[in-house]
Design brief:
Blueprint lengths: L1 H31 L2 H28 L2 E2 L2 E2 H27 L1 H7 L2 H5 L5 H7 L8 H17 L5 H27 L1 H4 L3 H14 L12 H10 L7 H8 L4 H28 L6
Helix pairs in contact: 3-7, 3-8, 3-12, 8-10, 8-12, 8-13
Length: 278
């Protein structure tokens, strides 16, 4: 009996992976139908990265460290941010931004009728391949930063980095999903979606810069209440600096708790939804 149940679970998971592959192929075909637009979006991402790198290079020409981060440690941090942001934008951002439109038009009904988990379907239905190069570029920046630092990559460092990165992705996705879910009650929630850009702006800088007396409250709030400062800082610190085990443990716990919270908010929102036909 248990064996049959396990086989059913494996078949269920396999169907989700196959569906994700189908979403990816469909989204890529859609992008390739307008190749000029696709290439322009990729070019703009590369130009933006070039401006960002020039900005930080200019800063490090006039100082050797920023709150304890040297140039190549910060380059690794920047690559980590760019890769994580690229992953979120590729998989989730467009889907969450369009969630309100589905509610407003009543098209959400069609998704809720599908024989599959609604959160999975609404989170992954479109994949934005034009932002996927950011993941590769971010990985290249991290690799270059590690090369210049010439520090050994131990299994402990790599393991801490991967676990913290997975937790950071979970936190970013969960916050985005909770914001999108508010569309069920508010219908037009564009102003609340602006909070995502605040969240991502906080991700962009190391948490160490908020250790000044005037910013301690900001650091505490966005470390323990809404842990935006952990999303990129902790994975980067785990690889190129000395990371306290306690903050790594809190990052893992925060990622898990935010996943549970976002699932609860999403399910509550769906139960509150009144279809277009009602």
């Amino acid at each position: 009996m248990e064996g049959g149940k396990d086989a059913g679970i494996r078949r269920g998971l396999g169907s989700y992976f196959r569906l994700l592959g189908a979403f990816g192929r469909f989204s890529l075909n859609r992008e390739m139908a307008f190749r000029g637009n696709f290439l322009m979006k990729v070019l703009l991402e590369v130009v933006w990265l070039g401006i960002l790198l020039l900005f930080f290079h200019t800063i490090f020409r006039n100082t050797s460290r920023i709150e304890g981060w040297n140039e190549y440690q910060y380059l690794f941090f920047l690559g980590c941010y760019y890769a994580l942001e690229g992953l979120i934008e590729t998989l989730f951002l467009e889907n969450c931004v369009e969630f309100g439109e589905l509610v407003r038009t009543g098209n959400l009904d069609f998704f809720l009728l599908k024989p599959i988990d609604e959160q999975f379907l609404l989170s992954f239905r479109h994949i934005d391949w034009s932002t996927a190069p950011k993941i590769l570029i971010g990985g290249a920046l991290m690799g270059f930063g590690l090369w210049e630092l010439a520090e050994p990559v131990t299994l402990a460092r790599l393991g801490g980095f991967l676990v913290a990165l997975a937790s950071g992705i979970a936190m970013a996705y969960s916050f985005l999903l909770m914001l999108a879910s508010t569309a069920i009650w508010m219908v037009r929630n564009q102003s609340l979606m602006e909070l995502w850009w605040l969240f991502s702006s906080l991700m962009r800088y190391p948490r160490d810069i908020y250790e000044e007396p005037w910013a301690v409250l900001i650091q505490k709030v966005f470390t323990f209440l809404l842990p935006a400062l952990l999303v990129v800082s902790v994975p980067a610190e785990a690889m190129v600096r000395i990371l306290e085990p306690a903050i790594l443990g809190w990052t893992i716990c925060a990622g898990f708790m935010m996943l549970l919270a976002s699932r609860w908010v999403f399910r509550k929102a769906i139960r509150s939804y009144r279809s277009a036909s009602s």
